[in-house]
C-alpha cells in the first residue's frame, strides 16, 4: 500500500472512527508490553530485545491485530527519514515520535503508548533509553505505569509506577525538568491531532 493511499484512507475515515482505532491501538500496545513482563513472547527475536525493541514489538503487535493493512509499509522512519523496519531509540525519537514536553502537566496528560525518554552520557557515547507508558482508562483505580527493557542481554522486561519513578528513582532516571538526562515525553507521530 502506498503512503499516498494510506493518507487518503485515513483522511476519508471519520474522526470518530480514527479516534476509536487509535484507542484500540493504544490499549493493545499496553497489553503487548505488559505481557512481556510476565513472559517474553518467543516471536520477539532475542537480538531485538532492548528498550527500542520493546517499543517496536508492542506497536507492531497492536497494528497487526487492529490495523494490519498499515503494516504494508514500515511503521518507523530511519535516520534519513525513509520508512524502515528497524530504528534504534535515538532514531525513533528523532523521526517517528514527537516531543510533548517535560513538565508535570504533560506527565499528567500522557496516554498508553506514549514514551518517557532519557539520554545518559557515557564514555563510549550517549545511550538513549525509552519507557512505554501504560495509563489505565480509570485513573482512580490504578496508577500510571511504565514498562521497559533495561537493555542488557538476557534481561527481563520490567514495569513500575510512573509516580515512583518521579519521586524514588536516582535523579538521572527521574522524569522531571531538573534532570538534564530526561529528554521528555513523546507520542507516536501518527497519533498526533
Q: Can you put this structure into words, describing what you see?
A:
This protein has 193 residues and is α+β, with helices and mostly antiparallel strands. It has a single domain, classed as endopeptidase fold (from Nostoc punctiforme) (Alpha-Beta Complex), CATH 3.90.1720. 36% of the residues lie in helices and 22% in strands. It has helices at residues 3-12, 15-38, 51-66, 89-96, 104-108, 162-168, and strands spanning 76-77, 83-84, 97-101, 115-122, 125-134, 145-148, 158-161, 182-188. The strands form 2 sheets. It has a 6-stranded antiparallel beta sheet. It has a two-stranded antiparallel ribbon with strand order 1-2. A hairpin with a 5-residue loop joins strand 1 and strand 2. Helix 2 packs across helix 3 (51-66). It is globular. The two termini are 23 Å apart. The model is unreliable at 1-12 (pLDDT under 50). Keywords: Signal. This is DUF1175 domain-containing protein.
Amino acid at each position: 500500500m502506498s503512503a499516498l493511499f494510506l493518507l487518503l484512507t485515513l483522511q476519508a475515515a471519520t474522526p470518530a472512527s480514527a479516534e476509536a482505532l487509535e484507542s484500540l491501538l493504544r490499549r493493545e500496545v499496553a497489553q503487548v508490553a505488559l505481557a512481556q513482563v510476565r513472559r517474553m513472547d518467543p516471536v520477539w527475536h532475542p537480538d531485538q530485545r532492548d528498550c527500542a525493541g520493546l517499543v517496536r514489538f508492542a506497536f507492531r503487535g497492536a497494528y497487526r491485530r487492529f490495523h494490519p493493512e498499515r503494516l504494508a509499509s514500515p511503521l518507523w522512519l530511519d535516520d534519513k527519514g525513509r520508512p524502515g523496519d528497524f530504528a534504534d531509540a535515538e532514531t525513533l525519537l528523532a523521526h517517528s515520535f514527537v516531543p510533548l514536553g517535560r513538565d508535570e502537566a504533560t506527565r499528567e496528560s500522557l496516554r498508553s503508548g506514549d514514551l518517557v525518554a532519557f539520554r545518559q552520557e557515557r564514555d563510549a557515547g550517549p545511550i538513549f533509553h525509552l519507557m512505554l507508558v501504560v495509563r489505565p482508562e480509570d485513573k482512580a483505580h490504578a496508577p500510571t505505569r511504565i514498562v521497559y527493557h533495561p537493555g542488557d542481554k538476557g534481561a527481563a522486561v520490567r514495569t513500575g509506577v510512573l509516580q515512583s519513578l518521579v519521586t524514588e528513582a536516582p535523579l538521572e532516571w527521574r522524569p522531571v525538568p531538573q534532570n538534564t538526562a530526561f529528554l521528555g515525553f513523546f507520542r507516536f507521530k501518527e497519533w498526533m491531532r
